[in-house]
Amino acid sequence: MFYSVLFPSEESAARPRRKTMPEAFTDLQLDVVMKRGLQDYQELGLEDIYYTPVTDPEVIQYRQEVLRELEDPAVREALSQIVERFGSLREFMDGLRQKMAGAMKLSDSSRRNYFYKIPIPGVTSSKTRNWMDMARVLERLGEFTETLADFAGSVERLRFRSAGLRGFAEHVLRFCKSERFLEMDAEARRLRAAFGGIRYCLWFKSDNSAVKVLPFEEQEDYAAGVEALFSRFRQGETRDFRKHLEEEPVSEKLENEILQLLSRRYPREFGDLEAFSEKYLDFDDDAILRFAREARFYLGWLEMTEKLKEEGLHFCYPALEEKPKETFARDCFDLALALRQNRGVVTNSFSLAPPEQILIVTGPNQGGKSTFARSFGQVHYLASLGLTVPGTAAVLPFCDGVLTHFEREEKLKDLNGKLRDDLMRLKKLMDAATPQSVFVVNEIFASTTAWDAQVLCGHMLEAMIQKGGNAVLVTFLEELADFGPQTVSMAAEAPEQEGGSASYRILRKKPGGLSYAMRLAERHALGYEDVKRRVGG
Q1: Global confidence as pTM
Q2: What's the mean per-residue pLDDT of the chain?
Q3: Residue 414 lies inside a defined structural domain of this protein
């Protein structure tokens, strides 16, 4: 039985999920990714999905299969109709029910009276029916049935392959064959056609103090006459000066009064509308409405990544394993940086083969080390959500969270001191870590002496090795590159470019020592021989 497009079973969906943003989001700039790349995710109620890494292989495979199939334009177009039309249906129906309960404090058994006992503000009659809300129920449920019927007709042609989309399609087919759905669909179509055929004239008193609904009389279409008269002066296509309104221009009081008058002329149609609203007010399907919300998790990601692909960047489906023979990612990049500039993004690769566990990254300031560290954390975290990751290929371990330690500004009111603060934060990370945690540590212990920092970093590396998870450490201490067989040295290198510019890459190599400083000095004619010649001259 289909339950969710994000989880293969109701049991897997019921597992606890985070309700608050992980601290690592800020350091890895994943908060920027969500804000810039998935601008409407906060309105979807999907925060707990983004905040909760998955270590269940079945869930990861389930999501990757759905995402891969949604890359097919035909599949995406068919499902986008459901997402666009149903995305707010549950909110609309729930809002209407809350409005009813708040206005009348009704029990479930008497809620149906809402439509004809609540007075409209400004209208004295307590028996005024709320035709506007009844019309909205008809319109939304009419769209609901039509869209589902259209989708059901396209299922055979699309032939879904992923378990998630195939399960959803089968659920929709069963739902569309149910007696209650067929009954509602037929009644909604009949009522919408009936109201679409109603024509009438409105008479307004000059001072707007009164309005009347009159029988429809065939009248001359003055707009058509004016257009025909001036058609001889038309020269090509003209600019459309009509303004698109973001919100529907509705006057609840006035429009409901007009509908009240119309209901007296068309009592059968309005009576059927009232009966329809009462009968189907509570009609919905949890699985379908849940799909309309959850599918945006995939659609938003595809929309964001496809824009970056057009700029020449690559995304891949990572293979996740319990204990990979080799952990690697090729041509990965900082996704937050790519969203900001998307051109000229430098890609890097990394690999770890047991017993290798920790990347030690050294190099000059502004050499791309922190950017590389963020991309390392991003790749692991995004893979744990079942999404594609920046790069051309990747094999990664299952990750239950990324734990980060980046530089923080020292707070004047905090009397702990910078070193103490670093140690307290690090202790918190170590206590939270598991063998499936990933560490990203950037320039720690910079406030103390080099010797003290080296000793403290040594203890930290030993603790990380003991925990068992992968890690990256950005540091100015080149001595740590040879800490042990569990560490791998990587260094920033800036190949010369035309015009003297440099494009940093993080390569698997020994620390560069003073080599970069010497090359920089020579580029600006400040090498030993250059200075000696000037002084001697």
Answers
A1: 0.82
A2: 83
A3: yes
